[in-house]
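Please check this record.
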Amino acid sequence: SSGINAELATVILEVDEPFDTRKMCGQSYDGASCMSGEKDGVQARIQAEHPRAVFTHSLKHRLNLAVQDSMDSLKVVEFFSECSHIESYFVGSPKRMEVYERHSTDGTMPIGSTSATRWMHRGRLIRHILNTSEVLIESF
């Protein structure tokens, strides 16, 4: 694994365009030891050559881990499941979709399946349900 770490660090440091790696002041990766390892990780190798390239664990990755941990709550799982059922109720029937479109100002419904890692879709679905709650109630 240290060979891969060295190779990754070399590739990053040899990038000329559009970055000047001599000006690196930070780096951010997920928590994988090959990337964030203090002794042999890519971040340690880069920091050895560029001491100002401070390593920070990716905040986006941390947020994703925290959200996934919160999904262990049964109430959260049930909430997202119900939101998906609302979407499926309309999208699964042309007649219901027609009723929804008649009541809707924009006639759109977020289409697509939700998944454990697709938080943007879940956010859009919840926002859409909140923004069109009156239309949804009228359509039922």
Notes: Residues 9 and 62 are 22 Å apart (CA to CA). The beta strands are 26-29, 54-57. The longest strand covers residues 26-29. The mean pLDDT is 78.
